[in-house]
């Protein structure tokens, strides 16, 4: 396997030494900057309105410096009054000005404080609420699916798994890109920003309690490191890895992967098949597109099928999973179906066709 030098690996690690954090999906809300802008605008309106009220009745106010109150003094008085500073150098002296302060300026002062203090309280409340959601999410997360890499392969893998009935709340995406995590949370998945080769990042994704781990990184060497780390943290999870080069597949299996998909070779074989037989290529494309047309699924043997041969079942059986062996439908070793067998079948996809992903690791070579 072609791995970069130690310096390149160190530089890559330094690039990802950013603060990693968990982001949970949330409802669409107004942008925080826009919310603060609206509050500041409202506070400015209250300030201008107060200054205008004072200036219209400037004869009812006294300034200790020169005795008169101009427009600048009115804004100054409004500022120190609304902020409850109250230096006392400008004071209302007439009855009308004092009544105005009691019934108009005092409510404006309260409104001004509510706007400013409310913004701070809302920020603190939002932070507390987010911490509560995060703690609750961690305490309830069990047997979930961790997806490392939210590129084209990662997104397609999530869509396929969710098409079998997996809930979005049971998917955690790990990616070093903040934009990728924002896209993941927008789709309803939880996200962890950080380098998945680091055990502390995978721990934030609760990988030690995960049921399945899908690794779809952009580089094969990164996939090896992530697989090694994930297998060390979780011995029982099913780990499926996508690589570019077929020569790296054995190394991934030695690193702890249960199944390795060579994306470049698989795409090349599909291209070749489509050239030889466009119809066969269309059928293969249909089979790997979960949720529409024909689907390739794994299911247990039902009681009525025990003792029958694979061809005698109602479904189109492709293979039989018996113990740690995957047997073809025409393999003489299959004989009659056993209660512990699982069948790989081709079925017509319907809205009710949901088969939960299997928790058992696939057989290793």
Can you characterise this structure?
This protein is of the alpha/beta class and 365 residues long. The protein is 45% helix and 17% strand. It has eleven helices and 13 strands. The strands form three sheets. A seven-stranded mixed beta sheet has the order 1-6-5-4-7-8-9, with helices on both faces. Strands 10-13-11-12 form a four-stranded antiparallel beta sheet, covered by helices on one side. Strands 2-3 form a two-stranded antiparallel ribbon. Helix 2 packs antiparallel against helix 4 (95-140). The two termini are 19 Å apart.
Would you spell out the secondary-structure blueprint of this structure?
Blueprint: H1 6-15, E1 21-23, H2 32-56, E2 61-63, H3 71-82, E3 90-92, H4 95-140, E4 145-148, H5 152-163, E5 171-175, H6 178-186, E6 190-193, H7 199-204, E7 212-215, H8 220-233, E8 238-243, H9 249-254, E9 259-262, H10 263-276, H11 278-288, E10 294-300, E11 316-322, E12 325-328, E13 342-348
Parallel strand pairs: 4-5, 4-7, 5-6, 7-8, 8-9
Antiparallel strand pairs: 1-6, 2-3, 10-13, 11-12, 11-13
